[in-house]
Amino acid sequence: MAPLPGAELVQRPLQLYRYLLRCCRQLPTKGIREHYKHAVRQSFRVHSDEDNPERIQQIIKRAIEDADWIMNKYKKQN
């Protein structure tokens, strides 16, 4: 189960970045949203020099799984 519709369409790093920021908008409080936005931006910068297509797909898959876990975590708390 993906946190937002469209997870299956994410193929490129920029699409992932936008997708994760949209996920952040659905988090419950401003502090939590800002925390995860910062984490997304920082992770994007860390991996910006990655040029191996297989590794990029691994990163995208893991990021979507992590976003799913985070969205479910906060959904259960509300």
From TrEMBL:
Family: Belongs to the complex I LYR family. LYRM9 subfamily.
Encoding gene, per UniProt annotation: LYRM9
UniProt xrefs under PANTHER family: LYR MOTIF-CONTAINING PROTEIN 9 (PTHR47061:SF1)
Pfam families documented for this protein: Complex1_LYR
InterPro entries according to UniProt: Complex1_LYR_dom, Complex1_LYR_LYRM9, Complex_I_LYR
Species, as recorded: Microcebus murinus
UniProt superkingdom: Eukaryota
Transmembrane parts of this sequence: none
Occurrences of domain Complex 1 LYR protein (ranges): 11-68
Protein known as: LYR motif-containing protein 9
